[in-house]
């Protein structure tokens, strides 16, 4: 059956909500089972336009996932807390930049949640495979925002860990011990 692009993408969204779909060819087969004709190239374009990303499932398999909220909707802070708690493994900063690390293939999910968070001072994000770069205003500063995000994620800010790790053995902080 011939359907419009919007109808097909709506059906893809519904399929991804109820099933773990690990490949484009599997999605083509699922659509075909519902009488919707689509090529793998078309499905690939649809997934890209929908913002679908591959995420790792418990047990190691991967599946396509879609952001939970429409792009124009501001997500509640609980949504950001849940996403960061699940996917952020490290938060650092430099100047007005915040870097968040995730498991491989999960940065897009965190970037999308940040983009929709309405977080004060956040100018935008860029997501790679396992790293999100968040640019914040100079007034807010990267350290302040990184500390806030690390707290939401349930992580200790990396700066605090570094101070513990980098402390000299024996308490000598001057490095010019005479003896």
Mind explaining what this structure looks like?
With 179 residues, this protein is an alpha+beta fold. It has two domains: 5-65, Winged helix-like DNA-binding domain superfamily/Winged helix DNA-binding domain (Arc Repressor Mutant, subunit A); 77-166, Gyrase A, domain 2, CATH 3.30.1360.40. It is 42% helix and 17% strand. The protein has helices spanning 5-18, 24-33, 40-50, 77-87, 107-115, 142-153, 158-166, and strands at residues 53-56, 62-65, 90-94, 97-101, 122-127, 131-136. A four-stranded antiparallel β-sheet has the order 3-4-6-5, covered by helices on one side. It has a two-stranded antiparallel ribbon with strand order 1-2. Helix 4 packs across helix 6 (142-153). The longest helix is centred in the first third of the chain and has 14 residues, at 5-18. Mean pLDDT is 83; it is low at 160-179.
Summarize the SSE layout with pairings:
Elements (H helix, E strand, L loop, with lengths): L4 H14 L5 H10 L6 H11 L2 E4 L5 E4 L11 H11 L2 E5 L2 E5 L5 H9 L6 E6 L3 E6 L5 H12 L4 H9 L13
Antiparallel strand pairs: 1-2, 3-4, 4-6, 5-6
Helix pairs in contact: 4-5, 4-6
Tally the helices: what do you get? 7
Beta-strand portion reads: 15-25%
Total domain units: 2
Helix percent reads 40-55%
> Which geometry do the CA atoms define?
elongated
Order of helices and strands: HHHEEHEEHEEHH
> Biggest sheet: strands, sense, closure?
4 strands, antiparallel
The N- and C-terminal alpha carbons lie at a distance of 87 Å
Q: How many runs of DSSP E, i.e. beta strands? A: 6
Helix/strand/pairing category: alpha+beta
CATH architecture of the largest domain: 2-Layer Sandwich
Mean pLDDT: 83
- Order of strands side by side in the largest beta sheet? 3-4-6-5
């Amino acid at each position: 059956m011939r359907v419009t692009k919007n109808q097909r993408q709506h059906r893809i969204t519904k399929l991804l909500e109820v099933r773990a779909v690990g490949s484009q060819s599997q999605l083509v087969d699922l659509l075909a089972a519902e009488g919707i004709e689509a090529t793998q190239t078309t499905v690939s374009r649809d997934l890209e336009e929908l913002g679908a990303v591959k995420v790792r499932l418990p047990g190691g398999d991967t599946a396509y996932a879609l952001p939970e909220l429409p792009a124009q909707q501001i997500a509640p802070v609980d949504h950001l807390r849940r996403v960061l708690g699940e996917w952020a493994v490290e938060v650092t900063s430099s100047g007005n930049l915040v870097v968040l690390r995730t498991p491989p293939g999960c940065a897009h999910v965190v970037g999308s949640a940040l983009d929709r968070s309405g977080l004060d001072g956040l100018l935008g994000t860029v997501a790679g495979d396992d790293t999100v770069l968040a640019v914040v205003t100079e007034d807010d500063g990267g350290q302040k925002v990184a500390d806030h995000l690390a707290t939401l994620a349930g992580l200790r800010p990396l700066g605090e860990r570094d101070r513990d790790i980098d402390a000299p053995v024996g308490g000598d902080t001057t490095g010019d011990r005479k003896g």
